[in-house]
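Appendix B.2, paired examples.
Example (i):
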Amino acid sequence: MNAPVGPLTESPVLPQPYLLFLGDTTEPGFAKTAFGLRDWAADKCVGELRLNGATVSTGLAAMTPAEARDRGARAMVIGVANQGGVIPQAWRASLVEALEAGLDLIAGMHMRLADMPEVAAAAQRMGRRLFDVRVPPADIPIATGRKRSGKRLLTVGTDCALGKKYTALALAAAFAERGVDHDFRASGQTGIMIAGGGIPMDAVVSDFEAGAAEILSPDAPDDHWDIIEGQGSLAHPAYAAVSLGLLHGSQPDVFVVCHEPGRTEMLGTAGYRVARVEEIVDLTIALGRRTNPAIRCGGFAFNTSALDAAEADALMARESARLGLPVADPVRRGPAFDALVSSCLG
């Protein structure tokens, strides 16, 4: 997979290629950073490192930090975005091992690498660098609500970690194929690693969320599209705040609802059911009209990775007929995805 991207904010040049660290992760949804890099920056990934007990794999070759360094890796990336963005004690020996093998460390967690004494000491001792991607820019302004020029598309979701970034990147690639002037705007750590710039929206203080979204997607020519990576879900009991700030600040003309058929409970929040796609459409329009009265739904992006091709096609055809808008899997692509792209462009 490949999509042209346009960085907004300059990020430090990250050392590449990467060894992807998966820790002892057992929930695939928490390994979205590793999967995102594998799928959208495969040429920058040499292998993976998993600890005992891990059941999640990217399918890349298993390597120790020393082996990865011998094969050209220059940094180890923590490929996990777990609940709370913490780096467990059980992972830290591996981080130190990577530094001692000659690799820099890159993380997109809320916990900072330099805040762990053993990691900071090893980096200083070995002359290695620590990169924390999940750090927002300084002096983010309060949102103004001013309508900006240009066109905007935002991906939203019925839950977390089900395809908002993949959908935005796939749409960016499709817009490029049609010759549409556009930029992919990254709002999460993995997207920033892929694009080379952006703002980690879930690390921004709530009062400044909408302001951050405004500077993430600035004024642009009338025929230019910003394709904005969504975060969280308006229906999520923990993460709705970041979703709302991003919605108000990005002022999307079009949104695409991302959903994983078969998922019943919200990720990391037992007891809360996944919202129906119609709920998210209604919520997004009701709240999004505050800053863009003309907001509309362009269609739906389904993550059908758990289904075979025939099952996926039949399900998406039924849902498209029921909902009255295109339903497609942005990874499978095909005619249904072409219809989704056309609907978004209007």
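Example (ii):
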Amino acid sequence: MTAFEINGASAADMALIRDWADEEGWNPGDSDRFAFAVADPGGFLVGRLGGEPVACVSAVRYGAGFGFIGFYIARPEVRGRGYGIQLWRPGMERLDGRLVGLDGVVEQQDNYRKSGFRSAWNNVRHEGVPRAAADPARGSGSGAGAGLEIVDVSTLPFGQLAAYDRRFFPAPRDAFLAAWVGLPGRTGLAAVRDGRIEGLGVIRPCSGASRIGPLYAASPAVAEALLLRLAEHAPDGMVAVDVPDAHPAATALSARLGLTPTFEAARMYTGREPDVDLTGVYGVTSLELG
């Protein structure tokens, strides 16, 4: 019988996992894996059958009490043979004692419920070429109000940026955030008024539509201003944003800008939803790492 072995992911494995996710239609960022690796270097597991990679999962630790499961993939040729669950168990063991979150694709949600996860909301991907709102007073984000500046995140103190991100995420993730906003080929912008951050957005290249995430903002108008500016950096104008449907204003903004729902995943947790400011989340950072 061919041996099935589980190991930590190498750099080559991380590139392979990205390609598998792309084949699943998830449209991962071209360089996401570099930020993922620094988030938790031991958090990516690969299952090998006869030495060949056939399955993967990520189980990333954040801070002392939070974890996130992602990249749960078994290759089509080995599905139904139990290799996925053999990876799932050590992944969950790695996060034992923590509140654990994930974004579950529709076909796996019943299995996640059997493992103790409960649905909190759906993250719905909206795609398209955004158009400015019809109201001329809001065109190109001018409805965000007087005194708002859109600046490159590299001009802000990183501590201020990390403190802002912490309002919307259950645990500190400074190493990940520093890589996420600063990797070559992507653009990070912040909306600033009177020295205070009122919004943050990052756009990154992908095989398909350029992904925007996170997209945080103090109001729909600020979110619109950021999204339209970020979309200028999409090679063909096409963008994709994963919008929490528990935030109706975010869904309404995506519709108003002409973006169309194309994909959804359920945000699920093993316990009570974390205390984050969901009213400021117009697009989640990543379906793989939260």
